[in-house]
Write a structure and sequence with these properties.
By secondary structure, the protein is an all-alpha fold. The chain contains five helices and no strands. Helix content is about 50%, strand content about 0%. The relative contact order is 0.19.
């Protein structure tokens, strides 16, 4: 039976990207994906995530934030 939700789309490298890559545009340009506010992520969830890698990472960060799992990223920040 196929997995669904966050666990199905989770790739360890993606978690590292969230604490490494910066938002490329918009109100929070230059802020790490992992540091984007939940209200901003919720706005994308309601309005639609952009296409491509940015949208995929925003959707992943939204799922992490929405499920209260942001603490999982803390050990990756220390690398």
């Amino acid at each position: 039976m196929p997995s669904s939700g966050l666990a199905a789309s989770l790739n360890p490298e993606d978690l590292q990207w969230l604490v490494t890559l910066q938002m490329p545009y918009g109100k929070y340009k230059g802020r790490l994906f992992a540091d984007l506010p939940g209200t901003y992520l919720n706005w994308f969830a309601r309005s639609g995530f952009p296409k491509g890698e940015t949208g995929r990472l925003l959707a992943l960060m939204h799922e992490i934030d929405h499920n209260g799992l942001s603490a999982l990223l803390e050990p990756l920040r220390m690398r």
